[in-house]
Amino acid sequence: MERDYNTTRPDLLIKEYGRNVQNMVDYALSIEDREKRTKLAYIIVSVMHQVNPHHESMNVEVYKKLWDHLYAISDYKLDVDYPVDVQKLDNMQQLPTHLSYKDNRIMYRFYGQNTELLLKALAEQEPCEERDQYVIVMANQMKEMYIEWNKSIVEDEVVNEHIKRMTHGKLQIPENTHLTPSNQILKKLIAAIPSSRTDASKNKEKQNKMKPKPKGKFNPKAKRRY
Fold first, then answer.
1. What is the spatial distance between Cα 193 and Cα 221, in angstroms, rounded to a whole number?
2. Closest CA to 35 of 117, 122, 129
3. Domain range summary for the chain, segments of one domain joined by +
4. DSSP string, 170-224
5. What is the separation of C-alpha 53 from the centre of its chain, rounded to a whole number of angstroms?
6. What is the pTM of this model?
7. Is 18 left (phi over 0), alpha (psi -120 to 50) or beta?
8. Strand locations in the chain (E)
9. Could you give the CA distance from residue 170 to residue 117 in angstroms, rounded to a whole number?
10. Which tens digits make up the pLDDT trace of 181-213?
11. Residues 6 or more apart in contact with residue 19 via CB below 8 angstroms
């Protein structure tokens, strides 16, 4: 199984919202039911507002801008019941300005701030099947983050406790849900390490062979042999 690097993933149109928001939008595009797709779109906009550090409170201008950005992140393909007139591709004159990040304390560094914000935003939504499905997606991603950071396996119960703590008990992994096995994740992460080290050692050995061998220094006092 090949490791999923950011360099191999599609580029983010608006990087300030992060990969998690992009994944949510991609998931929304895969939903066939328009009503369910629209409901998830409102959840995504709520998450985008949490991630955006420039606006502490929602107003009409901010609300419209978030929907414009959502439409842009979907590559102008997300077909939902928009509450505002979103800006079409032809009318987009420039990309949004760069957004700085809040200097907030992160509860779990190995998950990152965006993961916490995303879970908190999902926790404010009404319970539904779509929300449960995305919690499972997030839990699997968090499990991989934990293992990659700590280099050790982790039980599903631990990830579930972290989710409950970050959302003050409002969210948890649905019952009878089995996340990706820790051994499988750890094996995938470890498999990428030897190949990179082997390539590095081979390159170093090749460079050493190409270096000219040092010649002995001339010593006039050395005794000559005849």
1. 52
2. 129
3. 8-103, 108-193
4. S--PPTT--PPPHHHHHHHHHHHHHHHHHHHHHHHHHHHHHSPPPPPPP-TTSPP
5. 18
6. 0.47
7. left
8. none
9. 14
10. 988 887 877 776 655 455 555 666 666 666 555
11. 6, 9, 12, 114
